[in-house]
Write a structure and sequence with these properties.
This protein is mainly α and about 180 residues long. It has helices at about 10-20, 65-90, 95-105, 120-125, 125-150, 150-175.
């Protein structure tokens, strides 16, 4: 059975495609192979506005640069784990899915601000952020539980709900006063 490590080359291509960088050459799969073949990102539509996507969220104008810097490492690490989780879900790697989903759930949380708190990152973030942070943990556990049960239907539904939470949180990060509504809500 293949583990997530076997999909690292594919993850590198996806990451390069998302960042617009050129991928490195693929490592030799075995000693019997000739020279490595360069990997190429699949052509796709240009992002809106005709510019290349950085694969990152735009910087929100409402959040001070110091707070954005504090969140940056956390968001980058979270994004990497979520990309690996997506691959494990799509390739039905249940043990990897369980492990990665539990890693998402175990990510340290920011504490809710106490009344009158000022000058901290928690005080700057909108209340909805903390609701979504709690929801992320619950939904990541749901993905892990579904993977543990080897239930593909539950995995895909739970992952979809987890992705909804991610997009909602990104929406709050960019526009804290705007509520993210799903179609049909």
């Amino acid at each position: 059975m293949r583990t997530l490590v076997h999909f690292v080359p594919a993850l590198l291509v996806l990451a390069c495609a998302a960042t617009g960088s050129k991928p490195a050459e693929a490592p030799n799969a075995s000693a019997n192979t000739a020279a490595p073949t360069p990997l190429a990102a699949a052509p796709g539509p240009a992002p809106s506005g005709g510019t290349e996507s950085s694969g990152s969220l735009p910087e929100p104008a409402w959040l001070p640069s110091e707070a954005r810097e504090m969140l940056s490492a956390r968001m980058d690490r979270h994004g990497e784990v979520m990309m690996m989780l997506l691959v494990s879900v799509m390739t039905l790697q249940h043990s990897d899915t369980e492990l990665l989903a539990e890693q998402v759930a175990a990510e340290p949380r920011l504490g809710r601000p106490v009344t009158g708190e000022k000058g901290t990152i928690s005080a700057l973030l909108p209340p909805r952020f903390f609701t979504l942070q709690d929801q992320l943990v619950d939904r990541a556990h749901a993905v892990a539980n579904a993977a543990r049960a080897n239930d593909n239907g539950r995995i895909v539904r739970a992952y979809g709900q987890l992705a909804e939470t991610c997009v909602s949180c990104h929406s709050v990060y960019l526009q804290p006063d705007k509520v993210f509504d799903l179609p049909g809500d």
